[in-house]
Amino acid sequence: MSGASLEPRDAHNERLLANVHPPGWKNPEARGTYNLAVLGGGTAGLVSAGGAAGLGARVALVEKHLMGGDCLNFGCVPSKSLLRSAHARAEAARVTGEAAPDFAAAMERVRRLRAQISHHDSAARFKGLGVDVYLGEGRFTGPRSIEVGGQTLRFARAVIATGSRAGVPPIPGLAEAAPLTNETLFSLTEAPRRLAVIGGGPIGCEMAQAFQRLRTQVILLEVAGRLLLKDDPEAGRIVLEALRRDGVEVSLSAKISRVEARGGEKVIRFTGADGKESEARADAILVAAGRVPRVENLGLEAAGVAYDPRKGVRVDDRLRTTNPRVYAAGDVCSRHQFTHAADFMARTVLANALF
């Protein structure tokens, strides 16, 4: 089992890793056939594994990186902590007229709170619930088997709950500019003076507001003509007004042609709604332009599971894949990539896979 690391390497992140990817963790010896094998230890995977074990099933849970998935480590928990700090600073400034932000303290609070609650998703906790926890990269080797760490796990039913990752658009020069994503954003210890956010969905909007309130100058670039495309137009208008009220520069219908890295500065060239070419200069770029399902290197072909690299695993209305013994839940198969949706889908899987 390979180790995991998080930056910065402070006491908070060490405490987090001790729970969600313990150094020296020894995988159990595979034996017999599991009633349920779960690939992925995020929200959908943990709800599936814990729920099945609570019903008396023999359960295997395979996680290659961090237990808790995006929600605990790179999503809901750190983002809402940062939003709370930014909101407190904005309210203090409204009342007193001035409130100097302390970005380093806000990010230290993110890491502290994340570590404090990480035991809820820990490998040790789920082992205590009766789940066989395997830390390592798992892949299907057949329609009823998964390989992890040189062992073969045989199952009666399985759940694919591998989640999603930030999609990086194929914009010339963007990759070379080393953009931030939700997986690297919360490792910052110093605030960039200027931040360009690519994407006007929920993540892009909330982080644009948080950083602006913490005294980073933010520009948000959205290719569509409005924010929050999956929500009602009125919601997008309300958020747009709020962002601009906070000082965020928002450019809609912004078609980015290329990104250039010039020393420590990033230059984004784009065409705005008026058809004129413009450029945005920033010290850092955050990509929040949608999510991509994690379907690669899972051996889905060997399992007889159909998938689309962009849309994820194909499921029916019972969340069953094209292999009737294998189900999927969460971001890997859902258009609605939120923790509460993953939780509900996992409960649906339990009802259909175990009964």
Explain the overall architecture.
By secondary structure, the protein is of the alpha/beta class. The protein folds into two domains: 181 residues, FAD/NAD(P)-binding domain (3-Layer(bba) Sandwich); 115 residues, FAD/NAD(P)-binding domain (3-Layer(bba) Sandwich), CATH 3.50.50. 33% of the residues lie in helices and 25% in strands. The protein has eleven helices and 18 strands. Strands 1, 2, 3, 4, 5, 6 and 18 form a seven-stranded mixed sheet that branches. A hairpin with a 5-residue loop joins strand 12 and strand 13. Helix 1 runs parallel beside helix 5 and helix 2 runs parallel beside helix 11. The chain is globular and about 65 Å long. The mean pLDDT is 97.
